[in-house]
Amino acid sequence: MASVAASPLLAQDSANSNVTSGNPPPTKAEAEAESIAEDAPAKAKKPDINFVWTQFLATSIREDVDDEIRYGGRVDVYAKVPGSAIGLDDSITVNIHPEFRYGKSINGEIGVLPVQTGLFYPDDQGEQFDLSLSVKKTWKSGTSLEVGKVNVLDIAAGLPVVGGGGIEGFENLAFALPPSTIVPQEMFGAMLTVPTKKALFRLWVYDPVIATQKSGFEHPFEQGVGALASVTFPVKIGGKPGYYAIKLAGTTRRGSPVEVLPVGLQPIPGGTFGTARGQGSVVLAAYQYVGAYKDHPGKGWGVFGQVFFSDGDPTPLDVSGFIGVSGDVPFRPQDHFGLAWFRYSLSDKFVSDLAPFAAFEDEEGVEAFYTFEVAKPLRITADVQYIDSTVVARKPGWAVGLRAVTRF
Fold first, then answer.
1. β-strand pairing of 226-237 with 200-206
2. Which helix (H) or strand (E) holds 246?
3. Residue ranges of the domains in the chain?
4. pLDDT tens digits for the chain (408 residues)?
5. Sign of the four-CA dihedral 395, 365, 115, 327
6. Which residue from 192, 182, 198 is spatially nearest to 244, judged by alpha carbons?
7. H or E element that contains 351
């Protein structure tokens, strides 16, 4: 690649600036030394690697049920390998995320939605391992294209106000990764992101079958193709930043995503639900900061909310939503808090098919948490949830737990 000094026009501009500024022009030796320095290959950047160990201790509290305290945990490694580290340019990044899950959870003891998202993936019980691997190309404009297997929880963790991905912030799946059964949590495909001054545009094209504990190359797009298109508008209200998004998603897949549904929520053979081809959804989401702390730039608190609409067949969800408040604590900005409510509705046709076997209704709940930073590497979270299950026969109950996150 030609250096700056090799351009006659730029070299002439540089010499003129030296003269007009009163500085003597560079000597021949100085010019040669500058040229050699500019032509020298850039030093390869080192990979950015973060280790995160998350431990969970929790129990469910239900009437007439003596529940045990359960312990589980996970280890995540987040590695970003710059292109220069592997002989390419640094517009290329290789993202690698191995994850290992162990122990027991209380998922499924109260509601259908997991109350411990961090222990729900890659699988809900025992020792489980998974690996996400993708390659990302970023242009000078900020536009990027990422291809491979992506853990969508990693994207959800970066959302303003509500983000956390189940390792930080809210633990219930309703908030950590709002389920749609249309966009899989482990996604094999391509993601295009185009930032502009007025909005952020995204287009995802993916295999609609979840790629958990698979590479994604086994039978890609065998059951159809999925796509998500979204636009996010940055808006300031009272001088505080906010982000408002519209998301459209759909797949050409026939039938329900049975691989992600609990055993009790599988479509009934011969029923009227779950045989159609194609499904779609619309999401409206908002994240608005209300308070910002002048003495702590980047810290503050805000409100968030989302509503989800789908055709309700073959996806079992039709209308869902949540609203809450979350952010940093004013007197301890290194700490974090959150309080939110959710409601998820099963489609009427789905409930009607299951009625001879079990009665179902909407699932509703409230979650509150407080995260205390013991030291920069260690954060302890106390979490409590009240869940009114979609399973009518289950009485409402509480999920109470502690979470410790250690970062290396």
1. antiparallel
2. strand 240-254
3. 1-40, 42-407
4. 433 333 323 333 333 333 333 344 454 444 554 544 444 456 788 999 999 999 999 999 988 787 899 999 999 999 999 999 999 999 999 999 999 999 999 999 999 999 999 999 998 889 999 999 999 999 999 999 999 999 999 999 999 999 899 999 999 999 999 988 899 999 999 999 999 999 999 999 999 999 999 999 999 999 999 999 999 999 999 999 999 999 999 999 988 888 888 777 888 888 888 888 899 999 999 999 999 898 898 899 999 999 999 988 888 899 999 999 999 999 999 999 999 999 999 998 889 998 988 899 999 999 999 999 999 899 999 999 999 999 998 899 999 999 999 999
5. negative
6. 198
7. helix 348-354
Dihedral of CA 215/217/222/227: which sign?
Answer: positive
* Residue 187 structure tokens: 């996604």
Domain 42-407 has CATH 3.40.30.10: no
**Contact by Cβ (8 Å): 46, 88:** no
Q: What is the pTM of this model?
A: 0.86
